[in-house]
Design brief:
The chain has a four-stranded mixed β-sheet, covered by helices on one side. It has a three-stranded mixed β-sheet with strand order 1-3-2, covered by helices on one side. The radius of gyration is 35 Å and the shape is elongated. A hairpin with a 7-residue loop joins strand 9 and strand 10. The protein is of the alpha/beta class. Helices cover 37% and strands 28% of the residues.
């Protein structure tokens, strides 16, 4: 009995000793990490941005250029930390901004960072060479067959003798695609290229169009009718089988079906033709009747 008690006491003592050693190791590790953290905090110097100035910018103000930067200068109500990586991203943003506005040869020629080690502040100076402003002097459409040039010019707002602008050209491309979709060319592909004319600052833009198939309407199915007769739905249709696919006609039909007050949901979508005809698109009209 005494021997058993001694063994038990010995085991308890061993466990306590092990726990005590683990706690010491654990606390030592925490103190070590805290020491590293404090050392890092002491050695790290966080600078604040005092001001950002530009040179060479003629067509865009300092305020405008600062507005597109993520780096901001400190003010009465804002304290902005300086980050060199973010500044380099900002310089690229400025470069892209100028190019999108027609200054294709813009260059951020230099930048300087002046540090005040006592006040922990930086002043940033950015030098820009804007270069010449490029203008669109000529616009052509290439590859259009079913939609002729007069039709495109009538429906697409293109203007020459204006500053070359990539974003504006992207919007025009979207307008062309939308126009073709309205006429049933659901697979149309559009891209644009540009090149200088005799005078380098004059640009010619070409919109390259692959019209592909102009679809006609195949079979028309109606789903979701419980109380409403099918003929009531069909009399609101602004399309019929064999018509060229037209998004505007589908939207008109949707509007008129809603106006009946019979439906709280009207969804018209096109699907591959059930008969396998690759020049047609079937229509599925899915309806949910009002209570």
């Amino acid at each position: 009995m005494i021997i058993s008690q001694l063994k038990f006491a010995f085991q308890i003592n061993t466990i306590i000793h092990a726990l005590r050693n683990n706690i010491v190791i654990f606390l030592t590790a925490i103190l070590f990490l805290v020491g590293i953290n404090e050392s890092f905090a002491k050695n790290r110097i966080e600078y604040r941005v005092k001001k950002i100035e530009f040179a060479g910018n003629i067509h865009f103000s300092d305020k405008m250029l600062r507005s597109i930067m993520e780096t901001k200068h400190s003010s009465l109500f804002r304290s902005s930390a300086f980050d060199k990586k973010i500044l380099k991203t900002d310089l690229e943003t400025i470069h892209i901004f100028y190019k999108n506005e027609g200054y294709l040869k813009v260059a951020v020629t230099n930048y300087q960072i002046k540090k005040d080690t006592l006040k922990k502040k930086v002043e940033i100076f950015i030098e820009i060479n804007e270069g010449p402003l490029y203008k669109i002097k000529k616009i052509d459409f290439i590859g259009n067959k079913d939609l002729d040039l007069p039709f495109l010019l009538k429906n697409i707002p293109v203007v020459t003798d204006k500053a070359f602008n990539i974003l504006s050209l992207e919007r025009t491309k979207i307008d062309i695609i939308s126009l073709y979709h309205q006429k049933g060319f659901l697979d149309v592909q559009v891209r644009f290229t540009y090149e200088p004319l005799k005078r380098e600052e004059d640009i010619a833009v070409n919109f390259l169009i692959e019209e592909n198939t102009r679809y006609k309407i195949g079979a028309i199915r109606i789903e979701g009718l419980v109380k409403t007769k099918e003929y009531i739905v069909k009399r609101e249709f602004r399309f019929k089988k064999g018509d060229y696919y037209s998004i505007s006609n589908l939207l008109e039909t949707q509007k008129y079906l809603y106006r009946t007050g019979l439906f709280y949901s009207v969804n018209i979508k096109n699907t591959a033709a059930a008969d396998g005809d690759s020049t047609k698109r079937d229509l599925l009209v899915k309806l949910k009747e009002s209570e």
